[in-house]
Give the backbone structure.
Amino acid sequence: MGILLAITAGIMLGFWAMPEKYIKNYSFENAWGLCYVFMLWLIPGIVAFSMINDFGQVLSDVGTPVLMKMLIPGFLWGVGMMLWGKAINYIGMSLGFSIFIGTIICVGSLLPWYLSGVPESGEVVKILIGIAVILAGIIFNGRAGILRAAAEAEGDNKGSSSMITGILIAVIGGILCTGFNVALEITANGVAAKNIIGEMVVKNGNEAWLSSVASMFIVYVSGGVFVVPYFIIMLSKKKLWGGFNVPEAGKNISMTGLMAALNFTASIIFAYSSFLLGENGGSIGYATFNTLSVVAAVSAGVFTKEWAGAPKASKTSLYLGLAAMIGGVMIIAFG
């Protein structure tokens, strides 16, 4: 069940940015700023306070030391999320997801071992083999994107420069976004934060699975501490507040709300799958969740014709990458 939920969450996350392609006449700051307000503060607040009894008391019982420890990695995750949006704008969904998530898998799947200890040697070998296969898939996907960009640029250095910039943004954002996993796995008095939260959720008369909602609320709100003020400043600096008032405003708001809902729901499902997977959920579930998001994102990119004009070698590399990533997930899951 834990693996199946991680797969479901990954597919949902893979499609979260797809509605952005249907937003019209909004600048990056208008579209993504509105999305992040919904995603990081509005939706988490509504969901957490409506679903969890005495949620204010739950946060109080979790305690300031734990919340502050989660705030720092959550803040870094928020910075990474903002960079992810920029990477997708530079290099598209398919390549943006591949490079970004590849970095997350490489770093984020191993961080829980540093924080909570290394599992048994047999499990370590299987997980590392799976991650290696996944990373091979990421390399194939990256090559596919570079070949596509080269064909589109046709010798234009501007296209190559934009591709390199987008890849760098995706890598840096991916590293910072590992704060998501760290926030859940970080320990206080030898106990993981997600377990402390779960205990306090149950203590206040809630079902255990609602700890996933509480955990995501804390991480998302922490991320918004950077992202929301950043977009407020940029909207003011570039004088873009009037840019929200366009004929397509209703549709644009709906699309940004859908993006936010998909992302937050995917994270809640992942958190619950990690809980079900137990002590290795932070590694196994994290790799599965993120890899399936790439598979879904690349599929979405194909559906929206990102690869319509790509050369054959580029498409071949793309499909090899997908096959390798699915194979890596299977190795980790059965391992």
